[in-house]
Amino acid sequence: MNGLTRRQLLQLGGIGVLGLGLPDLLRARVPLSTSGKRGQEKSCIFIVQYGGASHIDSWDLKPTAPQDIRGPFKPIATNITGMQICELMPRLAQMADRYCLVRSMTHRNGGHDGGMHVCMTGHTNPVESTPYYGSVVARLRPSTRNIPSYVWIQNLAGDVQPRYLAGGFLGAAYSPLRVGTDLDNPSAPNFRMTAFDPAPDVPAQRLVQRSKLLEAVQRRGRDLVAGPSAVALRRFQERAVDLVTGPGARRAFDLEREPVTVRDRYGRHPLGQNLLMARRLIEAGVRLVSVTAWTGTPSTEKFRNVQTWDMHGNGAALGSIFGTGAFGLGWALPRVDQAVSALLHDLENRGLLENTLVVMVGEFGRSPRVVNAGRDHWPACYSALLAGAGVRGGRVYGSSDLQGGYVRERPVWPEDFGATLFHALGIPPETRLGADGFTHPASTGQPILDLFG
Fold this sequence. Notes:
Elements: H1 6-12, H2 23-26, E1 43-48, H3 67-70, E2 75-77, E3 84-86, H4 90-93, E4 99-105, H5 112-121, H6 133-140, E5 150-153, E6 177-179, H7 204-220, H8 228-245, H9 248-252, H10 260-266, H11 270-284, E7 288-292, H12 329-349, E8 356-361, E9 365-366, E10 377-378, E11 382-387, E12 395-397, E13 399-400, E14 407-409, H13 414-424
Parallel strand pairs: 1-7, 1-8, 4-12, 5-6, 5-7
Antiparallel strand pairs: 2-3, 4-11, 8-11, 9-10, 13-14
Helix pairs in contact: 7-8, 11-12
């Protein structure tokens, strides 16, 4: 053993010798502090209404507008006087005291790719390498448990670049663990999480043996590799082995451990089961879970993609935006009502809502005027839902004009929305991400403090 060079010993110290495929999930994610209690930690479930949800038909109805603008759905009263939402969401109407509606979201990018990049970074003009919220949270507030800090449930489709799978300029160490692709998602029968499986030729027992051998090699070579970096490397290896061989992380992803009644309450569709898994992951210590709000496909239709909310109507051969097909609000909104109301109830009953921020928003809204039973992309004005983590429920922030086309008061730009998210999670927006300590603030916006308290 004394004949090993320093270079060889360092190579042996690499995680690859263990036969693991998980280095990017754990590298550089050593917790900043492990002394805090769970109750002091803040987390986020970010529900992405991929495609761009129609605010005019869900959260910001315009019943006095002309018919080709207001659509056929009626507003109903909530449990907050003067606050109304769409009739297709009666459960959420009775929970309005738990969430806040922001009706004045705005930006200028009307494409799915660019709009999603704006939506998930909190920057009006992000560059290619601008990291998503989850990557920033994983960098500044990593999980204190042996579980990935950032998870993305359900894929995005080909209309956007796969930036959501990367960590931007923060690097691959801060990219998410993605769970579920198209029809292979947590709502599918016999779905199984495989990310923690060791390589086929390295069973768990052999993995443990390799770990012990590696530890012995490193112990004998401590005169060659010493100091904090060696300690951090060994800790990283131990976490990786435990993640693969231990039951903790696997248990968090296993929906079979949930009672049938709970799974039914969330809904046996992708959004319902994805949000149930998100709740389990938050309980397990994941810091930010992004969930693509795909509501599934009716049994009478063939699967097309996960862009539920891209409701262009008959002109794009998607059926009416007001119908009950896969790209119709009559299909999508009742499933949002079921799944999101169950999530909020669950988080509250388990004492998690006060420390868990729930966000639901699309990359933009939909155009005021209905054309060929559909609405087009519309970034000028749209709505978002926020709940938990100190957000004051039962209120509406901002407003749109009489047709829902433009912001009338209190515009919320991406920078301020991002700063608000970080504020809710206990991250000062001005916190610097650059290695030099002064470039790349987490956000250049100002948190909307009126939403809290």
